[in-house]
Amino acid sequence: RSEFEQMTILYDIWNSGLDLEDMGYLRLTYERLVAQARRAGQQTSGADWLNDTHWVHHTITNLSTPKRKRRPQDGPREHQTGSARSEGYYPISKKEKDRYLDVCPVSARQLEGADTQGTNRVLSERRSEQRRLLSAIGTSAIMDSDLLKLNQLKFRKKKLRFGRSRIHEWGLFAMEPIAADEMVIEYVGQNIRQMVADMREKRYVQEGIGSSYLFRVDHDTIIDATKCGNLARFINHCCTPNCYAKVITIESQKKIVIYSKQPIGVDEEITYDYKFPLEDNKIPCLCGTESCRGSL
């Protein structure tokens, strides 16, 4: 090797450290030099330093760092195609989702000790606004008009957010105080017939979609919000809910709207009674209230 190549090798050793292979070759070279010095009677020029040296094992400093495997708890799963959208729908267990969804909303029970003076003031203003609106409109016939209902749906939307619920999976929470008997949110989805709803429900199970959001409007019409809905589909069931669902008619089209039964505070979860029909296979209820029926 040339002097430059020799210096490059030494620089790499000083920079990256000694590994096990380097250590073996160094010891082998030392032993060969000692043997040569003994055979020559230590008369070889430049070999006098061997009398003052002894071999001492050096600590390995260049340790190989194997590539760490990605653990499931480090984040969402890796997709073979590189995109989650290209792989369609597949079931994800609740335990797996909890690894990377660390959102815990504040329950209304935790807010009981907080200062509610500001919330009560806002609710009072909302009730006063409703009374002024009713006085200005006048008769109950105008109150049931399509124009007023359409105005409430489009221009009087409440500030809501979805997050992890203590009842079940996801839930919907209020971001502003909501007075009683106010329109909270419309249940938006695709209007389908009963036969189509039965076919989709079976297909959703085959695709691994654990929760299908089918809301019955009447005997012939069902709203499917599984793939084209809004935040209303995240509302959980409760045996003592703070909201209720109502079917209204706007321009000869039936819509499902969620109304508040009582005043709702900030960060309080929106709930209503699903009122499922009595069946043999009952779905257990997890609302945890004192008057819980035990099933949906």
UniProtKB/TrEMBL annotation:
Give the Gene Ontology MF terms in alphabetical order.
Answer: histone H3K4 methyltransferase activity; RNA binding
A single Gene Ontology biological process assigned to it is: methylation
Gene3D superfamilies documented for this protein = SET domain
Q: What is this protein called?
A: SET domain containing 1A
Sequence ranges assigned to domain Post-SET in this UniProt record:
281-296
CDD domains in UniProt: SET_SETD1A (cd19204)
Cellular component aspect of the GO annotation: Set1C/COMPASS complex
The primary location reported for this protein is nucleus
Q: Which UniProt keywords apply?
A: Chromatin regulator, Methyltransferase, Nucleus, RNA-binding, S-adenosyl-L-methionine, Transferase
Q: Which domain of life is it from?
A: Eukaryota
For this protein, the record's Pfam families field holds:
N-SET, SET
Q: Where in the cell is it found?
A: Nucleus
Which residues does the annotated region (Disordered) include? 60-89
Which InterPro entries is this protein grouped with?
COMPASS_Set1_N-SET, Post-SET_dom, Set1-like, SET_dom, SET_dom_sf
Where does the record place the SET domain? 158-275
